[in-house]
Description:
The chain is an alpha+beta fold. The chain has helices at 3-27, 106-130; strands spanning 29-45, 51-63, 66-71, 86-92, 99-100.
Amino acid sequence: MDFTGIIVIAVVVVMLILFLSNYRKDAAYRMVNARVKEVEVSERHQKKGETFTAYVPIYEYEVNGETYTARGAMTKDGNRHAIGNIRAIAVHKNDPENVRLVKHSIKARNMGLFLAIIGLLIIVLAYFLIA
């Protein structure tokens, strides 16, 4: 086996390790629905001295009968976070105050990583079949 083959195998092993560690982290979270409770509005300054209005949603969600709140990501779009809107968030199973405001579901992220690994495996197989 030449040096290129070793590098290809090493990349596949690293991708597999990343997939498994990501899967284990995501297994500690579960998805719950959160409602926009309020939206904080403030004026912010950019580097060029310009100002803009910033909107930060405050989400309210319930876990095991208790209500929690979490701050969302700041945005310049005031229409994006209407009070009462529902959004899925990932809540840590052992610490309900530990949340992830994900753009895509955890399963969708895992599927992307899984497909990347399958693609790498196809490349490795093609390399060894051609070599």
